Amino acid sequence: MFDRYEGGDYAVLVHMDLPAEVDREDLSELQLLADSAGVKTLGIITASRSAPNPKFFVGSGKAEEIAEMVKERQASIVIFNHALSPTQERNLEKVCQCRVLDRTGLILDIFAQRARTHEGKLQVELAQLRHISTRLVRGWTHLERQKGGIGLRGPGETQLETDRRLIRGRIKNILRRLEKVQKQREQGRRARKRAEIPTVSLVGYTNAGKSTLFNQLSSADVYAADQLFATLDPTLRKIEVDEVGTVILADTVGFIRHLPHDLVAAFKATLQETQDASLLLHVVDVADEQQQDNIEQVSEVLTEIDAGDVPQLMICNKIDKLENTAPRIDRDEQGKPQRVWVSAQQDQGLELIVEALKERLGKQMVNLHLKLPPSMGKLRGTLYGLNSVTAEQVDEAGQLNLSIKMSVVDWHKLQKQYDNQLNQYVAQNS
What we know:
This protein is α/β, with parallel strands linked by helices.
């Protein structure tokens, strides 16, 4: 579809310092992104301008300098730490004689490598097609030729028009399939709400340690690595919290500054878990010098996906990289947990997270002692199914003596299920 140079694994990175805060990017983050994509960096070129050049983004002299480094070091791709217009990409490729990729294209490539589930792959393809469609409209004029030859002559549709139509059709098809996935997820969320099972969603800047924390809390085996976007597909696990019961823990894709809108739009279904959560665990890498910027970037994305008002508990992770910092819980004036200081990698302070979850999600509990006749074995099974039995004894008459602990909500539900007949089994000394 594209008359472009082939990409490769050997890159020259280009970073430009711009005075406007909204356009500013971080060079170290570009290097991490390149490493995450499996690219070997052969050289880095930096520049400063008051505003991007409309033709090359950088100045024409700097474009020649990039081309010389590409030739000298035999690089196969140039990666810019900025969003390039289709025209700028095309002009730079002519000068450098190799593939040119911008920040958005690099992130999309990483996402394409990381996607494992059917839904994740669909979402990545949707984001790629939306990105490509802008390149078709404004970029490759060689596609504006009419098709010719035997069997290809038609009503005069150009190759560009055909490709646009094919992309539109594919996007519609993916959106239909994602809509089905979203409906299935919605059914699961409604069922959890009916059962009053709280959902706790892990959010945070990419590489903050969300997946390591998720694995520690849920005994799961989610891929976790010290690289950007190690997690792409959402993962849900059940965990048990004292005085709360079953809690659904959700691991989500990491956020990043200037996350491309195509990606935010494509991952709406995934991020819905965050929007509907009972509580967000905002994981922060406290050893990162830019932690405050990262917190602000996450807050921006949460606002963009309508999850800005969901209650948050901040998890200050990687304290093992700080001096004289021990695990602890920071509370507000009312004593409610606001921050928990931990190291997920070193398994330090994780019990404090569970304690904070218990306080933030805790329900009003009842402690009862039931004396059940042998005929009430079904009720006994139900109580065990709710994980509410703390002790059990059988007396000589075969009567079941159960000590139970459950939320007031669950007890009222059980009462209703048994037509409010359960009080006759409650021992007077409960």
